[in-house]
Amino acid sequence: MGDGGWGLGDGGLAPPPNPQSPIPNPQSPIPNPYYINIKCIFLFFILSIKALYKKIINMLNNYDYLLKIIFLGEPGVGKTSIIYRYLYDSIQSYYFTIGYDFKNKLIDFNNKLIKMQLWDRVGSEHRIKSSYYKKANGAIIVYDICYRPSFIDMKYWLKEIKENAPEDISLIIAGNKYDLSERKVTEEEGKKIAEEYNTYFIEISAKTGHNIYQVFDILIKDIFDNINKSSIKIKNDSIIDKVSKCFK
Ligand SMILES: Nc1nc2c(ncn2[C@@H]2O[C@H](COP(=O)(O)OP(=O)(O)OP(=O)(O)O)[C@@H](O)[C@H]2O)c(=O)[nH]1
Ligand SMILES: [Mg+2]
Protein backbone atom coordinates (compact mmCIF):
# COMPACT_ATOMS: atom_id res chain seq x y z
CA MET A 1 0.00 0.00 0.00
CA GLY A 2 3.05 2.27 -0.18
CA ASP A 3 2.21 5.37 1.78
CA GLY A 4 -1.18 4.00 2.93
CA GLY A 5 -3.25 5.83 0.22
CA TRP A 6 -6.00 4.47 -2.05
CA GLY A 7 -3.78 3.71 -5.11
CA LEU A 8 -4.78 0.51 -6.96
CA GLY A 9 -1.40 -0.19 -8.52
CA ASP A 10 -0.03 -1.67 -5.37
CA GLY A 11 -3.10 -3.73 -4.46
CA GLY A 12 -5.01 -0.96 -2.63
CA LEU A 13 -8.79 -0.34 -2.66
CA ALA A 14 -10.77 1.96 -4.97
CA PRO A 15 -12.06 5.14 -3.30
CA PRO A 16 -15.71 5.00 -2.17
CA PRO A 17 -18.24 6.71 -4.49
CA ASN A 18 -18.93 10.34 -3.74
CA PRO A 19 -22.70 10.75 -3.23
CA GLN A 20 -22.45 14.39 -4.41
CA SER A 21 -21.29 13.62 -7.98
CA PRO A 22 -23.74 11.82 -10.41
CA ILE A 23 -22.78 8.32 -11.41
CA PRO A 24 -21.65 8.44 -15.05
CA ASN A 25 -23.29 5.88 -17.31
CA PRO A 26 -21.44 5.57 -20.62
CA GLN A 27 -24.23 3.44 -22.15
CA SER A 28 -26.87 6.22 -22.16
CA PRO A 29 -25.44 9.76 -22.12
CA ILE A 30 -28.04 12.32 -21.18
CA PRO A 31 -28.86 14.27 -24.43
CA ASN A 32 -28.64 18.03 -24.31
CA PRO A 33 -31.84 19.36 -26.03
CA TYR A 34 -30.15 22.65 -26.87
CA TYR A 35 -27.33 20.82 -28.65
CA ILE A 36 -29.82 18.64 -30.60
CA ASN A 37 -31.74 21.71 -31.77
CA ILE A 38 -28.58 23.38 -33.11
CA LYS A 39 -27.66 20.13 -34.87
CA CYS A 40 -31.11 19.89 -36.51
CA ILE A 41 -31.06 23.50 -37.69
CA PHE A 42 -27.58 23.05 -39.13
CA LEU A 43 -28.61 19.85 -40.93
CA PHE A 44 -31.75 21.52 -42.29
CA PHE A 45 -29.64 24.47 -43.48
CA ILE A 46 -27.16 22.20 -45.30
CA LEU A 47 -29.99 20.22 -46.95
CA SER A 48 -31.73 23.42 -48.09
CA ILE A 49 -28.49 24.76 -49.60
CA LYS A 50 -27.96 21.43 -51.37
CA ALA A 51 -31.51 21.45 -52.77
CA LEU A 52 -31.18 25.05 -53.94
CA TYR A 53 -27.84 24.31 -55.60
CA LYS A 54 -29.36 21.30 -57.38
CA LYS A 55 -32.29 23.42 -58.54
CA ILE A 56 -29.97 26.10 -59.96
CA ILE A 57 -27.80 23.51 -61.74
CA ASN A 58 -30.91 21.87 -63.22
CA MET A 59 -32.21 25.24 -64.34
CA LEU A 60 -28.89 26.09 -66.02
CA ASN A 61 -28.76 22.74 -67.80
CA ASN A 62 -32.37 22.73 -68.80
CA TYR A 63 -32.21 24.60 -72.08
CA ASP A 64 -33.21 23.97 -75.69
CA TYR A 65 -30.23 25.60 -77.38
CA LEU A 66 -26.69 26.44 -76.40
CA LEU A 67 -25.05 29.38 -78.17
CA LYS A 68 -21.45 30.47 -77.89
CA ILE A 69 -20.98 34.20 -78.52
CA ILE A 70 -17.47 35.65 -78.59
CA PHE A 71 -16.34 39.28 -78.16
CA LEU A 72 -13.47 40.80 -80.10
CA GLY A 73 -11.95 44.27 -80.21
CA GLU A 74 -9.11 46.43 -78.98
CA PRO A 75 -8.52 47.15 -75.27
CA GLY A 76 -10.86 49.67 -73.67
CA VAL A 77 -13.50 49.66 -76.43
CA GLY A 78 -16.07 48.39 -73.93
CA LYS A 79 -16.43 44.62 -74.48
CA THR A 80 -16.78 43.80 -70.79
CA SER A 81 -19.06 46.80 -70.24
CA ILE A 82 -21.43 45.58 -72.98
CA ILE A 83 -21.64 42.18 -71.29
CA TYR A 84 -22.31 43.84 -67.92
CA ARG A 85 -25.00 46.05 -69.39
CA TYR A 86 -26.68 43.07 -71.03
CA LEU A 87 -26.48 40.79 -67.99
CA TYR A 88 -26.94 43.15 -65.06
CA ASP A 89 -28.19 46.36 -66.68
CA SER A 90 -25.31 48.25 -65.09
CA ILE A 91 -21.87 49.53 -66.01
CA GLN A 92 -18.68 48.54 -64.26
CA SER A 93 -15.67 50.76 -63.71
CA TYR A 94 -12.70 50.01 -65.96
CA TYR A 95 -10.62 47.00 -65.24
CA PHE A 96 -8.49 45.02 -67.64
CA THR A 97 -9.99 41.67 -68.41
CA ILE A 98 -7.35 39.11 -67.57
CA GLY A 99 -7.06 36.25 -70.03
CA TYR A 100 -10.44 34.71 -70.83
CA ASP A 101 -13.74 34.78 -69.06
CA PHE A 102 -17.26 33.67 -69.87
CA LYS A 103 -20.67 34.31 -68.46
CA ASN A 104 -23.98 32.51 -69.01
CA LYS A 105 -27.39 33.98 -69.65
CA LEU A 106 -30.66 32.16 -70.12
CA ILE A 107 -33.15 33.83 -72.43
CA ASP A 108 -36.46 33.01 -73.99
CA PHE A 109 -36.44 33.21 -77.78
CA ASN A 110 -39.54 32.15 -79.74
CA ASN A 111 -40.68 30.09 -76.75
CA LYS A 112 -37.39 28.22 -76.59
CA LEU A 113 -34.97 28.45 -73.70
CA ILE A 114 -31.54 29.50 -74.89
CA LYS A 115 -28.40 29.31 -72.83
CA MET A 116 -25.96 31.93 -74.07
CA GLN A 117 -22.30 31.66 -73.27
CA LEU A 118 -20.72 35.10 -73.58
CA TRP A 119 -16.96 34.82 -74.04
CA ASP A 120 -14.87 37.85 -73.13
CA ARG A 121 -11.15 38.28 -73.49
CA VAL A 122 -8.50 40.91 -72.99
CA GLY A 123 -8.19 43.15 -76.05
CA SER A 124 -4.45 43.76 -75.74
CA GLU A 125 -3.60 40.12 -76.33
CA HIS A 126 -3.63 39.64 -80.09
CA ARG A 127 -2.60 36.00 -80.07
CA ILE A 128 -5.88 34.26 -79.31
CA LYS A 129 -6.04 30.57 -78.65
CA SER A 130 -7.97 28.91 -81.45
CA SER A 131 -10.22 27.32 -78.81
CA TYR A 132 -11.72 30.78 -78.29
CA TYR A 133 -13.13 30.67 -81.83
CA LYS A 134 -13.94 26.97 -81.77
CA LYS A 135 -17.67 26.22 -82.16
CA ALA A 136 -18.55 29.90 -81.83
CA ASN A 137 -22.04 30.60 -83.18
CA GLY A 138 -21.74 34.36 -83.15
CA ALA A 139 -19.18 37.13 -82.74
CA ILE A 140 -19.55 40.76 -81.68
CA ILE A 141 -16.67 42.87 -82.98
CA VAL A 142 -16.49 46.09 -81.01
CA TYR A 143 -14.78 49.39 -81.74
CA ASP A 144 -14.88 52.75 -79.96
CA ILE A 145 -16.45 55.45 -82.17
CA CYS A 146 -14.23 58.02 -80.39
CA TYR A 147 -10.98 56.13 -80.95
CA ARG A 148 -10.14 55.69 -84.60
CA PRO A 149 -7.32 53.11 -84.22
CA SER A 150 -9.84 50.67 -82.72
CA PHE A 151 -11.91 51.03 -85.92
CA ILE A 152 -8.87 50.50 -88.18
CA ASP A 153 -7.87 47.39 -86.21
CA MET A 154 -11.23 45.76 -86.84
CA LYS A 155 -9.91 44.47 -90.14
CA TYR A 156 -7.42 42.44 -88.15
CA TRP A 157 -10.20 40.85 -86.07
CA LEU A 158 -12.34 40.16 -89.13
CA LYS A 159 -9.40 38.40 -90.76
CA GLU A 160 -8.80 36.36 -87.60
CA ILE A 161 -12.43 35.26 -87.55
CA LYS A 162 -12.27 34.21 -91.18
CA GLU A 163 -9.20 32.10 -90.51
CA ASN A 164 -10.19 30.55 -87.19
CA ALA A 165 -13.93 30.60 -86.59
CA PRO A 166 -16.56 28.24 -88.07
CA GLU A 167 -17.50 29.23 -91.61
CA ASP A 168 -21.13 29.90 -90.74
CA ILE A 169 -20.50 32.17 -87.73
CA SER A 170 -22.88 35.13 -87.46
CA LEU A 171 -21.18 38.50 -87.15
CA ILE A 172 -22.12 41.95 -85.97
CA ILE A 173 -19.93 45.04 -85.80
CA ALA A 174 -20.76 47.33 -82.88
CA GLY A 175 -19.55 50.93 -82.66
CA ASN A 176 -19.61 51.57 -78.91
CA LYS A 177 -19.68 54.80 -76.81
CA TYR A 178 -22.49 56.37 -78.83
CA ASP A 179 -23.20 58.59 -75.80
CA LEU A 180 -19.96 60.55 -76.30
CA SER A 181 -19.82 63.57 -78.55
CA GLU A 182 -16.13 63.45 -79.59
CA ARG A 183 -16.75 60.91 -82.32
CA LYS A 184 -13.84 60.05 -84.64
CA VAL A 185 -15.61 57.49 -86.82
CA THR A 186 -18.80 58.33 -88.73
CA GLU A 187 -21.79 56.03 -88.85
CA GLU A 188 -21.37 55.78 -92.65
CA GLU A 189 -17.84 54.44 -92.23
CA GLY A 190 -19.15 51.77 -89.88
CA LYS A 191 -21.88 50.78 -92.32
CA LYS A 192 -19.37 50.65 -95.18
CA ILE A 193 -17.03 48.20 -93.47
CA ALA A 194 -20.01 46.04 -92.46
CA GLU A 195 -21.13 45.92 -96.11
CA GLU A 196 -17.62 45.07 -97.22
CA TYR A 197 -17.44 42.09 -94.84
CA ASN A 198 -21.10 41.16 -95.15
CA THR A 199 -21.90 41.60 -91.46
CA TYR A 200 -24.53 43.44 -89.46
CA PHE A 201 -23.72 46.86 -88.02
CA ILE A 202 -25.06 48.87 -85.10
CA GLU A 203 -24.01 51.79 -82.92
CA ILE A 204 -24.45 51.27 -79.18
CA SER A 205 -23.66 52.61 -75.75
CA ALA A 206 -22.87 50.33 -72.85
CA LYS A 207 -23.05 53.38 -70.64
CA THR A 208 -26.66 54.33 -71.40
CA GLY A 209 -27.82 50.93 -72.68
CA HIS A 210 -28.58 52.36 -76.13
CA ASN A 211 -29.19 49.46 -78.61
CA ILE A 212 -27.55 46.89 -76.29
CA TYR A 213 -30.41 44.35 -76.43
CA GLN A 214 -30.74 44.89 -80.19
CA VAL A 215 -27.14 43.68 -80.73
CA PHE A 216 -27.97 40.33 -79.21
CA ASP A 217 -31.42 40.10 -80.81
CA ILE A 218 -29.97 40.63 -84.30
CA LEU A 219 -27.20 38.13 -83.70
CA ILE A 220 -29.44 35.42 -82.25
CA LYS A 221 -31.93 35.82 -85.08
CA ASP A 222 -29.16 35.45 -87.65
CA ILE A 223 -27.75 32.37 -85.89
CA PHE A 224 -31.16 30.69 -86.09
CA ASP A 225 -31.61 31.72 -89.70
CA ASN A 226 -28.27 30.00 -90.41
CA ILE A 227 -29.27 26.85 -88.56
CA ASN A 228 -32.54 26.64 -90.47
CA LYS A 229 -30.88 27.06 -93.86
CA SER A 230 -30.50 24.39 -96.55
CA SER A 231 -29.62 20.77 -95.91
CA ILE A 232 -26.27 21.24 -97.68
CA LYS A 233 -25.14 23.10 -94.61
CA ILE A 234 -26.08 20.17 -92.40
CA LYS A 235 -23.16 18.29 -93.97
CA ASN A 236 -20.77 20.79 -92.53
CA ASP A 237 -19.19 19.34 -89.38
CA SER A 238 -19.63 22.43 -87.29
CA ILE A 239 -23.33 22.57 -88.10
CA ILE A 240 -23.87 18.92 -87.27
CA ASP A 241 -22.15 19.55 -84.00
CA LYS A 242 -24.18 22.66 -83.44
CA VAL A 243 -27.44 20.96 -84.28
CA SER A 244 -26.79 17.98 -82.05
CA LYS A 245 -25.65 20.24 -79.27
CA CYS A 246 -28.35 22.81 -79.63
CA PHE A 247 -31.41 20.73 -80.35
CA LYS A 248 -32.01 18.63 -77.29
N1 LIG B 1 -18.78 56.86 -72.17
C1 LIG B 1 -18.76 55.54 -72.31
N2 LIG B 1 -17.82 54.83 -71.69
C2 LIG B 1 -17.81 53.48 -71.86
C3 LIG B 1 -18.79 52.82 -72.65
N3 LIG B 1 -18.53 51.49 -72.62
C4 LIG B 1 -17.45 51.32 -71.85
N4 LIG B 1 -17.01 52.52 -71.39
C5 LIG B 1 -15.86 52.76 -70.53
O1 LIG B 1 -14.69 52.38 -71.27
C6 LIG B 1 -13.75 51.79 -70.39
C7 LIG B 1 -13.31 50.43 -70.92
O2 LIG B 1 -14.39 49.54 -70.85
P1 LIG B 1 -14.19 47.94 -70.75
O3 LIG B 1 -15.54 47.35 -70.86
O4 LIG B 1 -13.39 47.53 -69.57
O5 LIG B 1 -13.32 47.66 -72.06
P2 LIG B 1 -12.77 46.27 -72.65
O6 LIG B 1 -12.96 46.30 -74.11
O7 LIG B 1 -13.40 45.13 -71.92
O8 LIG B 1 -11.21 46.37 -72.29
P3 LIG B 1 -10.13 45.15 -72.15
O9 LIG B 1 -10.69 44.18 -71.16
O10 LIG B 1 -8.89 45.82 -71.65
O11 LIG B 1 -9.92 44.56 -73.51
C8 LIG B 1 -14.40 51.78 -69.00
O12 LIG B 1 -13.99 52.91 -68.30
C9 LIG B 1 -15.87 51.88 -69.29
O13 LIG B 1 -16.60 52.48 -68.23
C10 LIG B 1 -19.80 53.61 -73.26
O14 LIG B 1 -20.71 53.15 -73.97
N5 LIG B 1 -19.72 54.97 -73.08
MG1 LIG C 1 -12.60 43.64 -70.74
What's a quick, concise take on this entry?
The chain has 248 residues and is an alpha/beta fold. The chain has helices spanning 33-61, 79-88, 130-133, 148-152, 154-164, 187-196, 212-227, 231-234, 237-246, and strands spanning 65-72, 100-109, 112-121, 138-144, 170-176, 200-203.
User: Shape from CA axes?
Assistant: elongated
- Rg, rounded, reads 32 Å
What is the tally of helical segments?
9
The CATH topology of the largest domain, please? Rossmann fold
The overall number of domains is 2
How many E-type strands? 6
Helix content: 25-40%
- Give the spatial strand order of the biggest sheet: 2-3-1-4-5-6
Give an account of the 3D structure:
- There is one protein chain.
- Helices cover 40% and strands 19% of the residues.
- The chain is of the alpha/beta class and 248 residues long.
- The chain has 2 domains: 33 residues; 162 residues, P-loop containing nucleotide triphosphate hydrolases (Rossmann fold).
- A 6-stranded mixed beta sheet has the order 2-3-1-4-5-6, sandwiched between helices.
- Strand 5, helix 6 and strand 6 form a beta-alpha-beta unit.
- The site of guanosine-5'-triphosphate (GTP) has 21 residues, from helix 2.
